[in-house]
Amino acid sequence: xSESAIADFVSSFIPDTATxxxxxxxxxxxxxxxxxxxxxxxxxxxxxxxxxxxxHETAPGDLARFFEDTVTIAYERGGDRHVAVVEGGGDTxxxxxxxxxxxxxxxxxVYVKHPARRGGRVTDQPFEGGKLxxxxxxxxxxxxxxxxxxxxxVSHFERVDRDVDGSSRQLLSVRHMGATGPITTELALNSxxxxxxxxxxxxxxxxxxxxxxxxxxLTDEEIEALVAIYSSGPDASLAAVLGxxxxxxxxxxxxxxxxELVTDDDGIKLTSLGRAAVSEHIEDVNI
Length: 287
Hints:
Blueprint: E1 7-14, E2 24-30, E3 34-38, E4 43-47, E5 51-58, E6 69-77, E7 80-87, H1 91-105, E8 109-118, E9 121-122, E10 128-135, E11 138-142, E12 147-150, E13 156-164, E14 167-177, E15 182-189, H2 192-214, H3 220-232, H4 238-242, H5 246-258, E16 262-263, E17 269-270, H6 272-281
Antiparallel strand pairs: 1-2, 1-7, 2-3, 3-4, 5-6, 6-7, 8-9, 8-10, 8-15, 10-11, 11-12, 13-14, 14-15, 16-17
């Protein structure tokens, strides 16, 4: 590859499901323009501008005997559609998936209405143009419009039709947590391919955190504490907010830290998993 590599690792992969029935071992090399799957005998090039779907999930039935998790990349090249499958486990592959989505979506022109709703109330905020960016755990829009979506707090998203600049457009409606409660942000991209990829990226983050939350048991008191931290900020007195003594707060925080829902680095703060738990439960809590 003549351009600089932004990812380079060794893994098992199926370079093309139409021509390979079993995985091979080789290098996965990615630049800002392409992904190359290379073995000693051959190499397969995946042009990023032809990628129309990326999935990171448990291996489907036919591939389960080869892989536990997979990254499936569907793309067009020379007018034909192809599918490549890369072994999907480990931090290296997690970073690779993030880099793929960033290369596909970062800098894309976007129209955003932020917020389109506050709770259940429709706002009069107009659609504004900007550039889409992917930050760790976050969608950001910069330019004419400034907006952000904390992906750990997404509770629902769907495709809807809206009027944008006098014409009907399909867009993504994303419900998430804002600074003072649930809000909805609506996003429209000019490319249908990139709209699909953005929806896939949001679903990937959403599903991953929901799966992690299933393994976390929370008491009602712990949920109230998480919502209080979110609502009141790191400097608030949780004992006063929750109406319990300081020793009980210490026990609660220790339990939440052990469950990786909060951190105590320079003040009590929610982790991404903690913010996801708040998003899941905030409407059930009245504090």
